[in-house]
Design goal:
Layout: H1 4-19, E1 25-36, E2 41-44, E3 63-64, E4 71-72, E5 81-85, E6 96-99, E7 104-107, E8 114-122, E9 125-127, E10 140-145, E11 149-151, E12 159-171, H2 174-188, E13 192-193, E14 228-238, E15 250-262
Parallel strand pairs: 9-10
Antiparallel strand pairs: 1-2, 1-8, 2-7, 3-4, 5-8, 6-7, 10-12, 11-12, 12-15, 13-14, 14-15
Length: 263
């Protein structure tokens, strides 16, 4: 069933996994792995700033569609993570699981030792709430449903749901602010968000690993529901009279109405 939670999650993952990764994804190569005794994971020794495993970021768990910049959200990546072993060569992906949140490898094979890794990660910290006081390193983007309005759209049954949405952008430079605002605006303008099926969970489990049940029902979408339209998309810069902190120095906001029709 499509409800306010699944609508919000559909929008959240649309922006996080399909809009922002077109431009705001980075790669680290030949990063050493160290075995962490407490978790049993081979953890990547990243020195990247911002840290790939910081809140709202994480490693990329979807691939791009071959020959395009769009993202295939139906199955786990096969080309975004490569693990190398002692002595040279790569480890077969069937011999490990990726922890995309902690940034590590759970090696389940026998006789090989993971020594280094290549991976892609989300450059933007994307949050489902206001950043709060414990703000991740910039850039940060937060999205939230502001309100709900329901109106009739036909005689008899049926209603039109209008959910105002606010996307706040906190950049580290003027250029970054402009680029982030533009890509989010273009990603929403005259676009529709497909309602996704979360009955088997979200793409990642609580343990940071890819959910094996994801995408098994109608390719992860709810075909009986119409796509949700992004209407009245607007973007503006947030000018602070006095900038007391880095987070407020380069801010902008994108607002729009997420509209759907329910019988």
């Amino acid at each position: 069933m499509l409800n306010v939670t699944s609508e919000f999650l559909s929008l959240f993952y649309f922006l996080k996994d399909q809009v922002l990764p077109v431009e705001f994804v980075e790669q680290e190569q030949d990063i050493s792995l160290s075995l962490d005794s407490s978790s049993g994971l081979y953890i990547a020794d990243s020195v990247m700033q911002p840290l790939p495993t910081e809140r709202g970021r994480g490693w990329c768990y979807f691939d791009t569609v071959s020959g395009s910049s769009s993202i295939d959200i139906n199955q786990e990546q096969v080309s975004r993570v490569t693990v190398y072993k002692v002595g040279g060569g790569t480890i077969d992906p069937s011999d490990y699981e990726v922890n995309y949140i902690l940034g590590g490898i759970d090696y389940t094979g026998v006789g090989e030792t993971p020594i280094s890794i290549d991976y892609y990660f989300n450059y933007v910290s994307f949050l489902d709430s206001w950043p709060g006081t414990d703000v991740p390193e910039l850039p940060v983007v937060s999205v939230d449903l502001v309100d709900t309005q329901k109106v009739g759209y036909q005689l008899g049954h049926g209603k039109k749901q209008i959910r105002p949405v606010r996307v706040d952008i906190f950049a580290s430079s003027s250029r970054e602010q402009k680029e982030l605002t533009e890509i989010i605006y273009d990603g929403l303008y005259k676009k529709c968000v497909s309602p996704l099926d979360f009955t088997t969970g979200e793409p990642l489990g609580y343990d940071g690993k890819f959910n094996p049940e994801w995408g098994t029902t109608v390719s992860g979408t709810l075909s009986e529901y119409s796509p949700m339209r992004c209407e009245d998309v607007k973007a503006r810069r947030v000018n602070m009279p006095v900038s007391y902190s880095d987070i407020n120095r380069y801010r902008s906001v994108v607002t729009f109405d997420l509209t759907s029709y329910v019988e």
